[in-house]
Amino acid sequence: MQKNSAKFEMLDEESKKHGLAAQKDEITGYHIYDRLSRSTKDVHNKKVLKDIAEQELNHYHVLKKYTGRDVKPSKLTIWLYLFLSKIFGITFAIKLMERGEEEAPVSYGRISKVIPEVEAILKDEEEHEKLLIDLIDEERLRYMDSMVLGLNDALVELTGMLAGLTLALQDTQIIALVGLITGIAASLSMASSEYLSTKTEESDRNPLRASVYTGSAYVLTVLILIIPFFLFTNIYYALGLTIFNAILIIFIFTFYISVTKELSFKKRFSEMATISLGIASISFCIGYLIRILFNVDV
């Protein structure tokens, strides 16, 4: 070990820094996966997470053999990913963490001259670890399509409807009440449709749960979009904030999908934003025409 440490000490300061940073990442990853394995009740997921944790710990000890130093994990990073796992699920948290390790090959490349095991570590990170992560089975991911259905429909329908009503009615309280009643009715309709649709599928998805996910996503989106009309009396402030909320929902949910499903964020975000805002613009114009043609005065 002393011989290995001596080789490491011969590296330039920048390379030493990369080596210790890689060691810190491994021990931090170990604690994250270990804590996640102990917090989940699913036996299958618990085993997968424990296997990844042991792999991270093994990498740490390999690096320690050369650096000759103990490195403390980043408590802030551990807290952050444990928090994200509670909010968005285990899969999102660990895949986001793996995205953040894209610079690992650079760090390992700087120390590969004195640590021959680097290639094996990188292979574990890129292949074995990815395979293990893909084995994680999370309920919310199985019902992702149901959530997407509810959220997309609510965004397109409600954003468009609220934009149309803004000029047609010009009263935020009336707009909010009409939007809320319509939104709740539409969410029940969507949930019922998803229940019947899932029931005819040949899959392991539970029809009732699928309908709950669809309805819940729809109702939550409706509430977020309608709140500005309850808070403001100025119709344009309310509509502006509703559009902002719609874009924020699209941003957060698209980012979530892009991480968990490993899809292009930019493409999905631009598609959803263009559709929702396009429908809102058309509805706004229709509301204006209706107000002029029928001389609506509320």
Key descriptive features of the protein:
elongated, 298 residues, 0% strand, mainly alpha
Task: Write structural notes for this entry.
This protein has 298 residues and is mostly helical. It has two domains: 2-137; 140-294, no CATH class. 83% of the residues lie in helices and 0% in strands. The protein has 13 helices and no strands. The chain has helices spanning 2-9, 13-39, 43-67, 75-88, 90-99, 104-111, 118-134, 139-142, 144-169, 172-199, 207-231, 235-260, 265-294. α9 (144-169) packs antiparallel against α12 and α9 (144-169) runs parallel beside α13 (265-294). The mean pLDDT is 81.
Write the layout of secondary structure elements.
Layout: H1 2-9, H2 13-39, H3 43-67, H4 75-88, H5 90-99, H6 104-111, H7 118-134, H8 139-142, H9 144-169, H10 172-199, H11 207-231, H12 235-260, H13 265-294
Helix pairs in contact: 2-3, 2-4, 2-6, 3-7, 4-5, 9-10, 9-11, 9-12, 9-13, 10-11, 11-12, 12-13
Summarize the structure.
Helices cover 83% and strands 0% of the residues. With 298 residues, the chain is mostly helical.
How many domain units? 2
Radius of gyration: 26 Å
DSSP helical segment count: 13
Order of helices and strands: HHHHHHHHHHHHH
Low-pLDDT segments? none
- CA-based shape: elongated
In which range does the helix fraction lie? over 70%
